Amino acid sequence: MSLGMIDLGVVGIYAVALFAIAIWVSREPAGHAKDTEDYFLAGRALPWWAIGASLIASNISAEQIIGQSGQGFVVGLAIAAYEWQAAIVLLVVAKFFLPIFLKRQIYTMPQFLETRYGAGVKSLMSVYWIALYTAVNLTAVLWLGGLAIESLTGLDVFYAMCGLAAFAVIYSLYGGLKAVALTDIIQVVILIAGGLAVTWIALDLVSGGHGPMAGFARLGEEVPGHFRMILDKDNPSYSDLPGIWTLLGGLWVLHFSYWGFNQYIIQRALGAENLAEAQKGLALAAFLKLLIPLIVVVPGIAALILAQDGVLSAQTLSEKPDRTYGTLMTLAPEGLRGLVFAALVAAIVSSLASMMNSISTIFTMDIYRDYIAREKGEKHYVLVGRVAALTAMAAALFLARPFLGGMESAFQTIQEYSGFIAPGVVAIFLLGFFFKPANQSGAFAVLIGSVLVSLAMKLGLPDMPFVLRIWIVFLAIMGLGVLVSLVTAPPEPGQPVALDGIKFHTQPGFNFAAILVMAVLVTIYAVYW
Q1: Angle formed by the axes of helices 176-206 and 336-362, to 10°?
Q2: CATH of the domain at 255
Q3: pLDDT tens digits, residue range 352-396?
Q4: Residue 461 domain boundaries
Q5: Whose C-alpha in 187, 283, 344, 346 is 20 to 30 A from the C-alpha of 14?
């Protein structure tokens, strides 16, 4: 056991405070019963700072902290492309996609697809997203979080997963999105503080006690290959991050699928007070995204030097890179170790709670209400949502080990799984926004084609980097969607998006933030190309 009494006290204070705040923010005025808009969209009253914090807390989970730290150990800074390019995508989503979603006053992404293409497309995507969030996203967060806790405490990974699942269920099931989003402000503060503490400790150890800046300088001198954003073809990790194609290829498709059309991410913006608040929230999230590699990737690079120095076990980390962050956590002194542990738990339970809420929203509003039990009361649908969330969490607990236990890198595995359908998701939304003739037949062709073409290329060209494969599939099915739509019946009246009635104007503050984020990213790529 690596947690002392002080550590356990810190974690206990964090848990009690989180529960208390979740209950407090979830309370309703006397005489008001929580309805579906309250539970699933926080009453459409979220301010920008809650949206931005919740987006990052929901996103930065075990997948990023554990997975990207492990990839930092193996690959280096190039894995940060998943974070830094996401900042650009957040700004694009805020300016061009949110005005369309908020204009239609939707609860879910499948609901938008129904208004644009019809009930068939909505039903197909509802089932897909529920399966993805349960079998891939929830399982990944539970498994990687369980591995980290096992590394730190010695607790069996299954019981660690059970504890994380119970924590997320207890604090989020009652309050819904409002409890999740407003407590995420605390989660982000703890996450960043704990993450920076791990980075500081690791870099200070690398420097032999001469401070983190000296440690960072040593990393650059001794492992310069780990500070290249664009990998050469002879790099062992080129198949995962294929050089210039990380900038020009399918990584953008994955980003837009995740940040633009992913229910458990975009749901925060759908719960905003208004469009301006939602856009400011995404701009804040873009700024926070710039910091994430500092607290997840850099410690992984530092672990490589610490393993060479004998401070950490080189054999253990080489065989299972996903254990890197959990091993680094053991280096923190008592008390601070508790804060770091609380930060990891904060990241995990926030993501679990967000995914649970999104699964319950899609199941209740897009499947149960439409096909199983119409004309029920609001209280009934809220109860169904809670049962759906609990059921999904239980299923994920038992799927985690069989799905991910034998994977070399869970982070890259998740990206590849997502890459089979991400091109189709992005294509149907872009065609739905900007190509008026797009119809239901074209949408089905895109979704089915995404899976079939991806599988054919995976089997026929197994050595092609999946980032490049995703880009080729995306371009091919975009063309397929256009062709099928043009040769089949036109969409129903009212289905095409009337862009002339939507304002894409953004406030000066948002425009300044966007320019600043872009300037920082251009500088980073110029320095570490």
Answers
A1: 140
A2: 1.20.1730.10
A3: 887 888 888 888 888 888 888 777 777 788 888 888 888 999 999
A4: 419-497
A5: 283
